[in-house]
Amino acid sequence: MKWRKMMGLMLLCITLVTVAACGGKEAAPAGENGSSTEKASEGGNAALKDVKVVLDWTPNTNHTGLYAAVDQGFYKAEGLNVEIVQPGAGGADTMVASNEVPFGVSYQESVTQARTQNVPLVSIAAVIQHNTSGFAAPVDRNIKSPKDFEGKSYGGWGSPVEEAVMQSIMEGEGADVSKVKNINMGDADFFTAVKRDIDFAWIFYAWTGIEAQLRNEPIDMLYVKDYSEALDYYTPVLVTNETTIQNDPELVKAFMKATSEGYQYAIDHPEEAANILLKAVPDLDKDLVLASQKWLSPKYQDDAARWGEQKKEVWQNYADWMFSKKLLDQQVDVSKAYTNEFLPQ
């Protein structure tokens, strides 16, 4: 998985989810469009409901709990036959908002943006409790703080969110974001780009940072959450839509019970969980998946009372920050953007 594509998709979701993208129509109830139907189980004694969950991008360790829930039979125990699918051309958010599928993987920033456009996405769990993304540079660039961004070349994808985040953490140290040279990296991966064109980039440490360790290419990592409370937002999150919540709350409850068990399995058994992901997606790099999973597993729940728990202040702080940076054209009612209602007690 290329770092730019993963981070780029995260921010493109902010602008791609619109009412028009959802067809401007009321979403169909679950089951009407084939995304959640019932079929007889192999034993013929019980009916399993077919349910699809769409990923945000290529399978990776953010998603391990979903694969574990399938592999360990947690979904089946809840009467569900869950299929994990890749996003279509419109992206995961559009597929969920239009009820093409009832569940998906998204990001707090894109859900927040969607709510300002009356797109009915609702976050039902935080996959990772704290933001594990940040700006990374090879150690020979001597970037030890945001002030060191001045005079350096940043590789990104041209999103206004990038400069807004960079500006926020630089201003706190009296630095000037206009002194950073921005380069659109296209499809170049982090390791190629820093050898050829740039000094630093925005990455997820659980994937690209771990890969740097495995390649013996040490980096300095500046986590954005360490410089601004507002930037310690949830990324990624699991989402559904308001229609599914209204028409089939028991489906959401069953899905979340099994999914929580899947992530708890990944927390308790990182190596076994990594092997489940590798079995499902054998093209992934084995060493990277194993190392990433061991690093990420304790961070799924971290200091929360339970996996998936979301706090109002996290949603409010980030929405206020987005509005202050003119990334939102209006304030959003964050109470409608997320819920803990369907997490197991």
Keywords, please?
345 residues, alpha/beta, six-stranded mixed sheet, five-stranded mixed sheet, globular
Descriptive overview:
By secondary structure, this protein is α/β, with parallel strands linked by helices. It contains 13 helices and eleven strands. It has helices at residues 3-16, 64-71, 74-77, 92-97, 108-116, 160-171, 190-196, 205-214, 242-247, 249-268, 270-280, 286-301, 312-324, and strands at residues 36-40, 47-54, 80-85, 103-106, 121-126, 133-138, 153-156, 181-184, 200-204, 219-223, 237-241. Strands 1, 2, 3, 4, 5 and 11 form a six-stranded mixed beta sheet that branches. The chain has a five-stranded mixed beta sheet with strand order 8-7-9-6-10. Helix 10 (249-268) packs across helix 11 and helix 11 packs across helix 12. The two termini are 35 Å apart. The model is unreliable at 1-6, 12-34 and 40-44 (pLDDT under 50).
